[in-house]
Structures are given as structure tokens and as C-alpha cells.
Design a protein that fits this description.
The protein is built from two helices and three strands, in the order E-E-E-H-H. A three-stranded antiparallel sheet has the order 2-1-3. It starts with 8 loop residues before the first strand and ends with a helix. By secondary structure, the chain is an alpha+beta fold. It has a single domain, classed as Rubredoxin-like. The mean pLDDT is about 90.
């Protein structure tokens, strides 16, 4: 894939709120959902960089929140 790639991509996410990009002309793999943003590869990557600020999977964030709530911190 080169910097001159003109393909269209879309931003996708899974149940763990992890993000990726996927070619717009391809069927999404099981467990992934279109987020609503589409564009060039770089546009999609830039969007992910803005919105995906916590890389921890959702299940880990929940577990850590529950553990923190139980300790009084």
C-alpha cells in the first residue's frame, strides 16, 4: 500500500471499543461494526487518532473501574 492509495476506507470498531480501518468495498468481518466515518486511509487513521484516546479494551476498563470502586480510591 502506498501513500498514493486512492481507495476508500471506513472506520470500524468492535465490542471492546477497539478501532481499525477497513476497505469500504469489502464486507466487514464478524464482530466489527461501521463507526460512521469514511474517507481516505489517512483521513480514517487521523479520525481514529482523535477519538480512540484510551487503548484499553472496554472489558479491562470496566474491570479496573469496579476494582477501584471497591477500594474507596
Amino acid at each position: 500500500m502506498s501513500d498514493t492509495d486512492e481507495s476508500r476506507y471506513r472506520v470500524v470498531h468492535n465490542e471492546e471499543e477497539q478501532y481499525s480501518i477497513w476497505r469500504a468495498d469489502r464486507e466487514l468481518p464478524a464482530g466489527w461494526h461501521a463507526e460512521g466515518t469514511a474517507g481516505t486511509r489517512q483521513e480514517c487513521l487521523d479520525h481514529i487518532g482523535r477519538v480512540w484516546t484510551d487503548m484499553r479494551p472496554l472489558s479491562l476498563r470496566r474491570q479496573q473501574a469496579e476494582a477501584g470502586a471497591g477500594t474507596g480510591t
